[in-house]
């Protein structure tokens, strides 16, 4: 491309950020160079200057100046070695599918993304979830490896942008169920406690932030005790209003009610022994969020096998959680 071109924004790109639009179409173009093109007015949207964070609408026209051969090269195709077994497995996790969304009931123990010593993860299996769509589904939020439950995927760039806005604007009501040690006091309340990563930004553990800590992240979680079993266990529903790393786990520990199976935050106390499984007892039970195609979307995910076993052992009834946050929101 040796001259200025005008490119129309497609229907499947409606709502996408301008910088992400460029990343999709010109993956070799660096963010620094794009910013310079924007600052100098060489990139425009419908003839007007724009910022990298601007949201595009279907039908708009983006002015693209000559970028050079290297920047215009298509993204190399990533070859993923996905076995038939893994493809069938990840498809079995789907609990909802429509033209814009997929929802999985993620099992405990499956990482959402890869990392050091993590070769098998959900992100590496997403090709199997493309089905009839033109695009590979996109992750729009995360769950810890050992947390089970509702995980929403976007099937189009437009859906990803809409869901991203919903999460950013806190227009998503997520409920988690947990079995904890002891009983929080009071039985219902809000934990407003900033968190900071221990050992730097790449650390995998957080703790209450010290006053004046520049790396502190605001974190707020509603909680409600559904049922207590003697003085040893409680079933607690959590509703995070922010989405920090390990937020619920750290907040549960802060109110002296560590989650069963969470040795990282609860230490030996979190492993009560007996017939209660040692796995983390934290489950993303439901989500209520604006659907990209309009209206509200609500879905629940069944408890994982190890939590079902504990619920049966302790005589807990799922219906008892109805209205857990009445009077708190």
Q: Mind explaining what this structure looks like?
A:
- The protein is α+β, with helices and mostly antiparallel strands and 329 residues long.
- 18% of the residues lie in helices and 26% in strands.
- Strands 5, 6, 7, 8, 9, 10, 13, 14, 15 and 16 form a ten-stranded mixed β-sheet that branches. The chain has a four-stranded antiparallel β-sheet with strand order 1-4-2-3, with no helix packed on it.
Summary, kept brief:
It is built from 7 helices and 16 strands.
Features:
single chain; 329 residues; alpha+beta; four-stranded antiparallel β-sheet; 26% strand; elongated
Residues in β-strands, percent = 25-35%
Order of helices and strands: EHHEEEHEEEEHEEEEEEHHEEH
The quaternary structure here is: single chain
Termini separation: 55 Å
Secondary structure: helix percent = 10-25%
Name the average pLDDT.
Answer: 91
Number of helices: 7
Major sheet attributes: 10 strands, mixed
General shape = elongated
Runs in which pLDDT lies below 50 for 5 or more consecutive residues are none
Structural class by helix and strand composition: alpha+beta
Could you tell me the radius of gyration in angstroms? 23 Å
The number of strands is: 16
């Amino acid at each position: 491309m040796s001259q200025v071109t005008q490119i129309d924004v497609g229907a499947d790109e409606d709502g996408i950020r301008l910088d992400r639009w460029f990343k999709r179409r010109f993956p070799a173009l660096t963010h620094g160079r794009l910013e310079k093109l924007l600052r100098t007015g060489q990139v425009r949207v419908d003839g007007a200057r724009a910022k990298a964070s601007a949201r595009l609408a279907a039908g708009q026209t983006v002015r693209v100046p000559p970028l050079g051969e290297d920047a215009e090269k298509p993204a190399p195709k990533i070859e993923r070695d996905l076995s038939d077994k893994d493809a069938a497995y990840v498809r079995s996790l789907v609990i909802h599918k429509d033209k814009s969304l997929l929802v999985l009931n993620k099992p405990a123990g499956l990482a959402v993304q890869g990392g050091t010593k993590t070769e098998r993860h959900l992100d590496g299996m997403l090709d199997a979830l493309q089905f009839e769509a033109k695009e590979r589904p996109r992750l729009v939020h995360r769950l810890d490896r050992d947390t089970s439950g509702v995980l929403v995927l976007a099937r189009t760039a437009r859906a990803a942008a809409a869901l991203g806005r919903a999460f950013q604007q806190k227009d998503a009501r997520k409920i988690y169920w947990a079995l904890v040690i002891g009983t929080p006091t009071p039985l219902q309340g809000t934990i407003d406690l900033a968190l900071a990563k221990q050992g730097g930004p790449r650390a995998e553990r957080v703790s209450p932030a010290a006053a004046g800590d520049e790396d502190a992240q605001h974190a707020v979680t509603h909680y409600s005790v559904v049922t207590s079993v003697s003085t040893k266990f409680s079933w607690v529903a959590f509703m995070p209003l922010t989405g920090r790393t390990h937020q619920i786990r750290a907040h549960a520990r802060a109110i002296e009610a560590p989650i069963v199976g969470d040795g990282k935050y609860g230490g030996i106390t979190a492993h009560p022994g007996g017939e209660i499984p040692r796995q983390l007892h934290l489950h993303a039970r439901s989500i209520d969020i604006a659907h990209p195609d309009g209206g509200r979307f609500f879905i629940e995910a069944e408890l994982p096998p190890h939590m079902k076993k504990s619920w049966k052992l302790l005589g807990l009834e799922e219906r008892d959680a109805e209205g857990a946050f009445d009077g708190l929101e």
